[in-house]
Amino acid sequence: MAFPSAPSALWSVSLLTTLLAAAVHSNIVFDDDPLQPMTTDETVSVGGKVTLTCRVAESDNSSLQWSNTAQQTLYFGEKRALRDSRIQLHRSTSTELSITIDEVQLSDEGEYTCSIFTMPVRTARATVTVLGVPSQPQISGYERPVVEGGEVTLTCNSTGSKPPATLHWYKGDEELQGSPNVVAPFPDQPTYVVTSELTLKVSRSDDKALITCAVDHPSLTTGSKKTAQALQVLYSPNVRIDPETDLPREGERFSLLCVGNANPEPNSYIWEKKDGELPLLAKADGAVLHFPMLNKSDNGIYLCHAENRIGQSQGEYTLLVQDPTAMSTSSGVDHAVIGGVVAVIVFILLCLLIVLGRYLIRHKGTYLTHEAKGSDDAPDADTAIINAEGGHSGAEDKKEYFI
Questions:
Q1: Dihedral of CA 136/141/144/149: which sign?
Q2: CA-to-CA dists, residue 97 to 57, 110, 120, 173, angstroms
Q3: Which of 111, 113, 118, 236 could bridge 67 with an S-S bond, Cβ 3.0-4.6 Å?
Q4: 150 has which bridge partners?
Q5: What integer pLDDT is reported at residue 335 of this predicted model?
């Protein structure tokens, strides 16, 4: 019987050791191997908690072990190997070893190894992905109110995201189109700074509008982080004149109010009457024009000029003084309604009377008694009775009956 030489035997052992190490390093999984560990990859946000679980289908009483990304043993069965209070034992059985990591940091990201010390040693790996949580967005670029028709450029940025966050712009509930997001690495950190710009040409309708920058990121499970900036737009007056009443009547007191919708508020109001002077009794008091007693000579078109430091505008109102007996529009409407109701009631009563009259005419005579028949042509009462009974013979019988 031939035996291998010593150098040959040493070469065979070395080859076997190399293959075993390669198998361990490459995490070879043997089909239908009940002792092969099984793990899952996990994703967690910075500051969160992650659970790493390693299981085998069957147990041969060999111990399971978790190692970190630096191949430092964390737990060997129930025994803690690394003194890190953030890492705790979650469950340890003959077929499972689960650990938790609290207050996860970006440095915790990487590949963790679960091993079972059988012959050969079997391993499985779990990749932990740590999400960097973006900061509250910051809006810059707005320093002072903007005049209507001007432009404002706002800049929004958020730091600390991993992977890079996405920024969105809104005016109220309407999404606006900002510039494409610019992504840059944060110095000395595996996170990113994201920036976006928004340029708006403002109108008076944008005054007090809220422009919002919102951050969208998978680490924000409760929704986007948002920051809002209120705009202030300066614009010239938009003037209208409101009368004290819609029915100015002769001899009554009356006033006109000049409403100058503007930002800032108008600092000057000027009243005038078109094609003439203001009435002698009319008194202008800022935004109000008073008429202590109306006269038909006050009729005409009145103008109000309102001005602020942005510009000026005017509004007009046509005054038409009514007679003192003129009814108000609302009274006229009320009387029209009442008149309509009365007309409907009278019409219904007339219809009822007509129907009742026709009914009485059709049934006339049905209420005459049987004794009254034939009495119209009788010369005396006895004859009437005889005729009512239907003839002479009947009368004889009647007379004999009474005798």
A1: negative
A2: 12, 19, 19, 49
A3: 113
A4: none
A5: 65
Token pair belonging to 46 = 């910075």
The 10 Å Cβ neighbour count of residue 336 is: 10
Residue 397, helix vs strand vs coil: helix
**φ and ψ at 118, to 5 degrees?**
-105, -175
State residue 352's pLDDT score.
87
Cα of 281 vs its chain's centroid, Å: 54
From the CB of residue 244, how many other CB atoms can be counted at a distance below 10 Å? 14
For residue 284, which amino acid is it?
A
Q: Which amino acid is at 95?
A: T
Cα first-last separation, the chain? 175
Number of residues assigned to the chain? 403
Whole-angstrom Cα Rg for the chain: 52
Tell me if 179 sits within 8 A of 198, measured CB to CB: yes
Three-state secondary structure call for residue 199: strand
pLDDT the model gives residue 378: 52
**Structural tokens at position 148:** 């209507």
Nearest-angstrom CA–CA distance, 195 and 180: 9
Residue 8: its pLDDT value, please? 39
Residue 377, pLDDT score: 56
- 127 pairs with which residues across the strands? 111
Convert 360-384 to b/e letters by CB count within 10 Å (16 or more is b). Answer: eeeeeeeeeeeeeebbeeeeeeeeb
Q: Considering only CA atoms, which of 114, 105, 142 is closest in space to residue 41?
A: 114
What per-residue confidence (pLDDT) applies to 135? 95
Q: Peptide bond preceding 7: is omega within 30 degrees of 0, i.e. cis?
A: no
What pLDDT, on a 0 to 100 scale, did the predictor assign at position 370? 46
Sign (positive or negative) of CA dihedral 392, 396, 398, 399: positive
Quote the strand ranges of 231-341, DSSP E: 233-243, 254-263, 268-273, 283-285, 288-291, 300-307, 312-319
